[in-house]
Amino acid sequence: MRFGPRHTTSRPAARRGLERFFGPRGGAAAGLLLGLWVAGCAIPSAAERARSLSRQGHDEQAVELLKSDIAAHPDDVSARRLLVRLLGVTGDLPGARAQAEELARQKGASDPTAYIELGHAFELAHRYEDALAAYDEAATVAPTSAAGPREGGMRSARWGEVEEARPRLEEAVRRGAVDAETWHALGLVRLHLGDFEGATQAYRAGAAADPRAADCWLGLATVGITRGDPALALEAYDQVLARRPHFGPAALGRAWALGKLGRKDEALRALDQAQDLGAPAANVARLRASLEAGASTPAPASDQYGEDPGAAGVKE
């Protein structure tokens, strides 16, 4: 399944912002390998021992351990899945492909797992185009599963490729991926593409999916700041502070929104709260001077207020 052109124009500012939220490409290996962690066994499984070896930098030994385990226990799916990824780490992509093909035979033709694992192997080998193709193949072989398009969309967002990420994340949502993390990623991608209405819709859906989390409300605050909508920003910062009452940058953002709405006394009280909560002193002083002078509150600078950490670069 193809979701759009693979060769997109890189957006350095967007990539910097997205990497702040998702983590840099170079840090992907640990996350992808730890993503298969299963705990609670008194005797460590082969996969658990292999992960331990990999964390110590002994990837080749981990590969040999998994190969021996699979030779003795060919139905050990968790070991084979990890082996596919570790073969990507060690650069043995033909071996990773062969193990993925065996995994596909074990899981069945309509299961996306093998293609997703192969995508991770390519990604760990820094073959991003091939990784995305594998995630798209996962979407094709399992046309009712959200796993393939979600993985492709989330990974593309991590890479800063927002044009690639958007159609995959939207397809994942159509297939039923309505968790807060997916909605948040989609909101962030739409925000980078300048689709404020779409970002607002996604962030609100994510906030509804996980009412306890602050991330999507922080995203909505960023939409409010970026499009100059202080009422939206104030609503969102109130919700952030209800969930993270000691987050000083959100109190500072709330003061900015109140100032923009002409509510000077409330804005000054919010600034006092922001100062007490440890918001950056220079930013507090700048906003206070502007409010006390009766001037319009200053335009937000990057990182001045509590914003979605993946949104850096949107206003650059």
The biggest sheet amounts to: none
- How many H/I helical runs? 17
Instruction: Count all strands and give the number.
Output: 0
User: Kindly, what is the distance between the CA atoms of the first and last residues, rounded to a whole number of angstroms?
Assistant: 34 Å
The CATH superfamily of the largest domain bears the name Tetratricopeptide repeat domain
Q: Determine the CATH topology of the largest domain.
A: Serine Threonine Protein Phosphatase 5, Tetratricopeptide repeat
Helix content: 55-70%
CATH architecture of the largest domain: Alpha Horseshoe
Domain module tally = 2
Q: Write down the secondary-structure element order.
A: HHHHHHHHHHHHHHHHH
Q: Find the structural class using helix and strand composition.
A: mainly alpha
The percent range for strand residues is under 5%
Spans of at least 5 consecutive residues with low confidence:
none
What overall form do the CA principal axes indicate? Answer: elongated
Mean pLDDT: 88
Characterize the structure shown:
The protein has 316 residues and is mainly α. It folds into two domains: 12-177, Serine Threonine Protein Phosphatase 5, Tetratricopeptide repeat; 201-311, Alpha Horseshoe (Serine Threonine Protein Phosphatase 5, Tetratricopeptide repeat), CATH 1.25.40.10. The protein is built from 17 helices and no strands. The protein starts with 11 loop residues before the first helix and ends in a 24-residue tail after the last helix.
